[in-house]
Structure formats: C-alpha cells, structure tokens
Amino acid sequence: MESWTRAFDQGSKDLHNISRAMTEIETDMRIIKVQMDGMNINTAGLNQNFAHLNRQMDAMNYQVGSIRNRFSPMGMMRGMMPW
User: How far apart are CA 68 and CA 83, in angstroms?
Assistant: First the structure.
C-alpha cells in the first residue's frame, strides 16, 4: 500500500511540474505575441516611411523633369542654351 501512496505522490508532483511548465510556456507565448505585435507596428511605420519617401521622390522627379523641359531645346528658352 505504501508503494501506491508513493507512486500517487510522485504522480501528483509530476502533474504539478507539468502544470508549472505549461504556465511558463503560456507566459513565453504571451511575450512572443507582444513582440510580434511590436514588429507589426514597426513594419507599418516602415511602410508609411517608404510611402512618404516614394512621394518625395516622385515630387523630386517631377521638379527635375520640369527643369529639364525648361532648358531643353524644345522648351521655353529654345536657342539660348548651347545644347
């Protein structure tokens, strides 16, 4: 009978250890979720920054094109520029 009691106590300890390990895993998964949410927020911010950069580059290309047209032989100053 004593061996049954010992086996039951050991099984109870094992279950307690498993429960504690599962709680630690759950905590780790929550931490990972928070980190992933943070990465998603950072990625969204990067996407916004790239979109803004693209708009700025489009505006710069438009200005460069405007200047190029102004000084081209077919532009307003035709005949005044050496090219």
Answer: 12
CB atoms within 10 A of CB 75: 14
Q: Is the pTM of this model over 0.70?
A: no
- CA 26 to chain CA centroid, nearest Å: 23
Residue-averaged pLDDT of the chain: 85
Does the pLDDT at position 73 exceed 80?
Answer: no
* Confidence band, pLDDT 50/70/90 cuts, at residue 2: confident
d(Cα 10, Cα 4) in Å, to the nearest integer? 10
Overall residue count recorded for the chain in this entry: 83
Give, in order, the Cα–Cα distances in Å from 1 to each of 4, 5, 7, 10: 5, 7, 10, 14
Residue listed under structure tokens 């504690």: 20
- On whether the CB atoms of residues 59 and 53 are closer than 8 A, the answer is no
